[in-house]
Amino acid sequence: MKYAVFVAVAGALVLAGCQTEPMRNMRADLKTLFGTTKGAPALAAGLRQYEDGNYAESARQLQSAIDQGLGQSDRVKAHKTLAFIHCVSGRTTACREEFRRALSIDPAFELPPAEAGHPTWGPVFRSVKAGR
Description:
Elements: H1 2-15, H2 21-33, H3 40-51, H4 55-68, H5 72-88, H6 92-105, H7 113-116, H8 122-130
Helix pairs in contact: 1-2, 3-4, 3-5, 4-5, 5-6, 6-8
């Protein structure tokens, strides 16, 4: 286990200087593994705001979290939640785009059954997924 941590930390240090998008994503994933992504507090705040029905503030926090840096699964979660906000607000095009972003991060991404069956965003997600 100590060896794996050493390798991960060494890899993060080697990649620290590289500014390509894949390398930034890899660094964010390593930070998530060690619980240190900069965007984590904004993601948590955005998800709380979403649950409270404060969609405008939620969207602002979620976008801030993405901009600050998140690991892969958290980026997918942020884009999925942004898609939900756009869908329930009647912005179908923006909803589709957020689902596309989530799927570009994780092509195997699926909505859980309860979310997939939602009458507003379920059909949009299925359409985007089928079009890939």
